[in-house]
Amino acid sequence: MQTHKQHLNETAPRMAQKNINVEILKPIKIPVPPLVDQQHLVDEITSQETIIAAAQKVIDAAASKKQAILKQYL
């Protein structure tokens, strides 16, 4: 989008706030990675989210484990 900024500014209606609508944006080609690379990114993010969820369970359980240990020994 940065590469199209000047063109968009020139195309936008001259108002207090520029209103760049769908018709203005539609013809702009936005480069995207190949589908195989997109899937690789999705797989990696999904894997990281699984790891984060498991770590969050450990963190969530830590407070109750701490309380149980304190109650047992104090």
Polypeptide structure, described:
By secondary structure, the chain is an all-alpha fold. The chain folds into 2 domains: 1-31, no CATH class; 32-74. Helix content is 68%, strand content 0%. It has helices at 5-11, 22-25, 35-73. It is elongated. The model has no long low-confidence stretch (mean pLDDT 86).
Q: Specify Rg, calculated over alpha carbons.
A: 25 Å
How many domains in all? 2
Percent helix: 55-70%
- Let me know the number of strands: 0
Succession of helices and strands: HHH
Q: Helix/strand-derived class? A: mainly alpha
Strand count, sense and closure of the main sheet?
none
Head-to-tail CA distance between termini: 61 Å
Low-confidence stretches: none
The number of helices is: 3
What is the approximate shape? elongated
Précis, in short:
The protein has 74 residues and is an all-alpha fold. Helix content is 68%, strand content 0%. It starts with a helix and ends with a helix.
List the helices and strands and how they pair.
Elements: H1 5-11, H2 22-25, H3 35-73
Key attributes of the depicted protein:
mainly alpha; single chain; 74 residues; 2 domains; elongated
